[in-house]
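Narrative summary of target 7.
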Amino acid sequence: MAEREPLPPIRFEALNDALLDRIDSLVPAWLDGGSMKGNEYFVHSFWRSEKTPSLSVCMKGARIGKWQDHGGEHKGGDLISLYAAIHGMTNGAAAVQLARELGLESVAGVMPAQGAPKLAKPTPAPAPVAPRVKLKEPWVTVAPVPDMAPKANFKHEHRQPEDIEHLATYMVDGALYGYVVRFRTSDGGKETLPHTWCQSQANSTLAWKWRTWVEPRPLYFPGGVSPAAAKAAGRVVTVVVVEGEKKADILQNLLDARAPGVYLVASWAGGCKVWDKALWEWVAGTDVILWPDCDGKREKLTNAEAAQCLDDAARDIAAATKPLLPANKQVGMKAMLGIGALLQGTHGCKVQILPIPEPLAVPDGWDCADAIQTDGWGFDQVLQFFGRAQPLPAADAKPEAKAAAGGSGGGKKIDPPGGPVAGEDEFDGDGDAFQGHLDWLCDQLKCKVHEIGINRRAVVTALRKAPALKRCLGLNTLTGAPSTQVPWPWREKAGPLEETDALRLGDWLSTIYKVKAASKAALEEAIDTVADERRFHPIRDWLQGLEWDGTSRIDKWLIHILGKGPDKDKPGTTELERKPKLKRYHELVGRFLLMGLVARVMEPGCKFDYSPVFEGLPGRGKSTLVKTLVGVEFFSDTHFDVGNGKDGMEQLEGLWGYELSELTALRKADSEQVKQFFSSTIDRFRGAYGKYVQAHPRQCVIFCSTNKKQYLYDLTGNRRFWPIWIEQFIKLEWLQKWREQLFAEAYHLYSQGERYTPTPQEEAEFFEPEQKKRLVETAVQSRLYEMLTREGSPGAEGKVSSDLNVNATFVTLDRLVAALGTDAAKSSSLLEAQIRGWLEAHGWTYGREGGGLRRRGYKQPKMWPPKFADEDEEAPPPAGPSKPTGGPAQGTDHEDDDNVPF
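Modeled conformation, tokenized:
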């Protein structure tokens, strides 16, 4: 049998050039129903159902013939591959079929089909096609935009100005790089286009064009400030990366409303498939949180499966039966994992990723904008979500080592069997995984165990795999430092690390596994690495594990432990029964105190700048009350001066409750410093051994204690202090017994969204009267009140103060200074500040006097003299004498009083 002659090779390039000459008729015939947008033909993708056309074919220009499915992964560089994708065939089969259908066999070098009719006269050979010259890109972007550039007008040949849905200005540190404009399309979809300042390659003309940037592309910072500029200004910021400019604006506005300058939201142009074209060097060396979109995409139909579907409806049904892609393969998560790996491995960033829901647990594409605008998340919920950020997961596989020059492979770097170790996966299993790791290394290196050098990676492996070590370490997010959750083999208790633990770890590894000693630096770095993988919060974890029994105690617990509850033997005789406003004040303080403590650890940095002040004689248990409430390990009363540098900030780190004993610090500090210190939600400082200034959101509540009844000096800044007078011994045993149930109820109410701060009406009615009773009155204030509320003046008074009485509707500062016995020329700023403060606190307003004199001074308020509600209107006493009993006096514990007030 004679051998068959080999077929000639298909001339793909010549065939494609011939197809490009007919592109205007071929593409609409293959993909009907599309429309032109600029140089591109857009049509609905036939691989899925969609509202907005995402399949585009370039019809002219330098990219003619190139096509891409922007919502998927299909793309190609010529019309042959497009035809093959449409019909589910290979490029070779598509070239043969196209050549035969269009009579281009001779151009493509394809044999005519068997049985095809022969033409009577051969078709004249087509004129030689001039080689298609690839045009150089006609316009290139210029960035940053020079000052001489005119203002962009955003005119588009197919879009109107009213179609602009969002405008992102790429302004970084005062330099403009361009814009990204999001248009609303007629079918309800969106089209996002970059608008940049460009220069013509042909004649150097400059103009605004709808073109993207040359690579690398700038990042988008809604605040207009880069991390480098923030660092230069002394700010320590956390970068939050999201996908898309619009959602970046939404998140940045929310964060800046409560924590300005703390978070920098960043995004990039072009979507999740081109993240690697962005200039990620701009966030180098920062702490980064990744917030991926929660996509719910399924595996794509193969070309063969798509070809079997008769129409779009059948194709949609077939696509819906495909399995969901794994979470790490969803396009949004895949992009974020790639970004995180680049930032962490190349740019020295500390990267964490937020635990978004599983695919389709929320609507497809759920993102930070949906959380804020649809689900109603506020700053507190977003910050709480940030608190759940997790370390970036290890890559599935590492790239193989490249061959060295003159060799066949990489260096002597050996990965353990199964790839690099992972953290939590090593908790399972009964054997000693670290010993197995050492044995395997010995087999690979042909050495003994005692010859193995122990570097940082080896110590990390030990901390992850050794049975006695793998559950020990974690990062305590309350203190911000590594800690043990299970005791070290050489310690009896778990807790904060001690100075010698790194050295003890090295000694333990050498003793148990007979390996070489590791350096202290390697040991410490390994401890930090593994601890950062396993974050925990002791108080938050404790609160979330509590179960409330359903009995409400939160309003009455404080009254009960202070012995101010009703006396069952003498009803109606206690102070709080006779003063309902005072009783309600104690109830509110008790409720808000517990809920504020919960909020401070669930939402570090939340606004709770109030401080209970426990007053009373020494020995009543004021400090022990705070210690019992928050726990000994989370309490401190070490003295510091408010406003004295970072000392006070460092004292609060890692605590749930701090006591300012005897208010000594407040007496020495300026009132404005006191206000600022108590109102601060985020402390910024560099720790004693830290490298950088960092943000430390407040997680503690500051308590105060004093033996005095008057201790507040500022006439206007006392809303932060909640005074509570303690007369009897506190029922500390009851508090210790029911502490868990008190916090279980507080956490339940917090989870239900109950508020934990008083309203302005509650402050005015219940809190301010108690605060005013604690004001320290000076001689100046006393004299001013006496003069301006008296009916007349004594005869011995001089002319200067004789008309200063209750009828004085206008007073000047110099008259009051003189009336206080000081010459106006010798007056001090301190005296004048006292006078102004007293007048303003009592409602006198500064302005000009009416009439012809037009002096400047203070006008009397409408209600003068002031009426002070020092006491509640007391309830009537109980009728008849009370029956004498031999029971315990008020304030002592009854045998069965555990739940009496509840």
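The chain has 29 helices and 28 strands.
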